[in-house]
């Protein structure tokens, strides 16, 4: 009973943690800056080029290419450097790069706008693994899932409200003010991180390690392959990326082909998805202290896989809307459960490199399937493609079941012995 009461109050106690509050405030400002930047850049490029498709596609290039080039390198340096210092400097440099763009825009050189997205994306590859390392340093494994779910809730809310915020700021104030506000948000994020407890002294940290960069990269790869649990989690994460990538470009065809409605009706299936994102984030935070990461991950994979297949088969708008809501509702559980398990099973000295390996795999699998989704749909059918996507989630579940089962048996043997 005492243990249950402790777990039930875990989420509430987490909010009293000064570290968690500082990171939460930093995340709020950072997310606001990202979404204002993303939509200001998109709408400005559309306006400046008259809707040129090549120019618009270059925004995605500036956002995604650094992930493949810098993610692993950023992970290595995240393991070398002190995480708080790294994150603060990344936010400060993001702010300075945006202010530089603001200054150059005054000369009429609109192409410099891509520089803001490129710089932020590069710096994110150093900041994100450092953020995970920071959590590992300051949050116990018991509270890790609650903390990750809190940050995921903030991200989920911005997934829905961010486009509205970014569009409104640009339409009301224009590109100059939008860019200035982006820089201000990143700077406020850095200030919030200043109040995070100090990093360990250099003598306790790997930034004094003089190992060659390539040697540390190979150490990270060997660590992932030697750790069966992390390897399986990474494979599961990659399979989820494949499934998400297949369906990402095809949502409009659910409306036009399956429901036989005009493309404008896409908003009616987008609304329950957005609502599910917000509710799912709140629900996962509320239950994060009561449900183990393994169960979170398994439930999320099972329900999301089923919801995707249902969405692909549905010919009724109410059923499609329900499927979209269910998919979004359990989506945070997958990422929270997977990330919490990584936090629990990765040595502190390898957090950055493990994240540096996982992120490109997830992103690469998504982009790969997004590029072939249209061809798959034309070759097969929309329900078949959604079925394949759902099976990717089921495959991720099958990958993890043996590990969960063996861990459960070990726990039971330990309890019987005691």
Report what the structure shows.
The chain has 418 residues and is mainly α. The protein contains 15 helices and no strands. It has helices spanning 2-8, 10-14, 18-49, 53-80, 83-105, 113-138, 141-194, 213-226, 228-247, 251-258, 266-287, 293-313, 317-345, 351-379, 382-417. Helix 12 (293-313) runs antiparallel to helix 15 (382-417). Mean pLDDT is 84; it is low at 1-5 and 409-418.
Strand content: under 5%
The helix/strand series, from N terminus to C terminus, equals: HHHHHHHHHHHHHHH
Q: If helices are DSSP runs of H or I spanning 4 or more residues, what is the number of helices?
A: 15
Q: Level of helix content?
A: over 70%
Could you tell me how far the N terminus lies from the C terminus, measured between alpha carbons in angstroms? 19 Å
Low-confidence stretches: 1-5, 409-418
Shape, per Cα inertia axes: globular
Structural class: mainly alpha
Report the strand count: 0
Summarize the biggest pleated sheet: none
State mean pLDDT (0 to 100 scale). 84
**Cα-atom radius of gyration:** 22 Å
List keywords for this structure.
418 residues; mainly alpha; 15 helices; disordered C terminus
Annotate the secondary structure layout.
Layout: H1 2-8, H2 10-14, H3 18-49, H4 53-80, H5 83-105, H6 113-138, H7 141-194, H8 213-226, H9 228-247, H10 251-258, H11 266-287, H12 293-313, H13 317-345, H14 351-379, H15 382-417
Helix pairs in contact: 3-6, 3-7, 4-6, 4-14, 5-6, 5-7, 6-14, 7-11, 7-13, 9-13, 9-14, 9-15, 11-13, 12-13, 12-15
């Amino acid at each position: 009973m005492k243990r249950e009461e402790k777990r039930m109050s875990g989420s509430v106690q987490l909010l009293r943690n000064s570290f968690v509050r500082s990171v939460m405030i930093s995340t709020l400002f950072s997310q606001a800056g990202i979404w204002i930047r993303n939509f200001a850049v998109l709408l400005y490029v559309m306006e400046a080029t008259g809707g040129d498709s090549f120019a618009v596609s270059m925004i995605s290039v500036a956002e995604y290419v650094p992930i493949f080039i810098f993610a692993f390198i950023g992970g290595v340096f995240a393991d070398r450097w002190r995480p708080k210092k790294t994150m603060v400097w990344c936010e400060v440099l993001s702010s300075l790069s945006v202010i530089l763009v603001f200054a150059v825009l005054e000369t009429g050189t609109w192409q410099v706008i891509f520089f803001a997205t490129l710089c932020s994306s590069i710096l994110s590859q150093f900041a994100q693994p450092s953020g995970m390392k920071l959590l590992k340093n300051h949050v116990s494994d018991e509270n890790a899932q609650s903390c990750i779910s809190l940050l995921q809730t903030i991200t989920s809310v911005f997934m829905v409200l961010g486009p509205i915020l970014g569009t409104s700021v640009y339409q009301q104030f224009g590109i100059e003010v939008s860019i200035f506000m982006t820089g201000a948000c990143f700077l406020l994020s850095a200030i919030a991180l200043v109040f995070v407890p100090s990093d360990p002294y250099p003598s306790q940290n790997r930034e004094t390690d003089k190992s060659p960069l390539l040697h540390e990269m190979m150490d990270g790869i060997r660590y992932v392959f030697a750790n069966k649990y992390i390897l399986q989690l990474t494979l599961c994460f990659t399979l989820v990326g494949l499934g998400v990538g297949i369906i990402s470009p095809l949502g409009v065809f659910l409306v036009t082909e399956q429901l036989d409605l005009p493309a404008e009706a896409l908003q009616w299936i987008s609304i329950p998805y957005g609502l599910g994102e917000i509710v799912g984030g709140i629900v996962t935070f509320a239950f994060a202290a009561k449900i183990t990461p393994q169960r979170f991950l398994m439930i999320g994979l099972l329900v999301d896989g089923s919801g995707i297949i249902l969405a692909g088969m549905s010919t009724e708008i109410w059923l499609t809307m329900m499927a979209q809501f269910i998919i979004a509702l359990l989506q945070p559980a997958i990422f929270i459960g997977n990330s919490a398990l990584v936090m629990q099973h990765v040595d502190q000295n390898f957090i950055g490199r493990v994240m540096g390996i996982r992120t490109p795999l997830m992103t690469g699998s998504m982009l790969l399937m997004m590029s072939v989704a249209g061809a798959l749909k034309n070759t097969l059918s929309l329900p078949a493609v959604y079925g394949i996507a759902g099976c990717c989630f089921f495959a991720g579940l099958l990958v993890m079941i043996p590990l969960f089962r063996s861990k459960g048996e070990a726990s039971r043997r330990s309890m019987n012995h005691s």
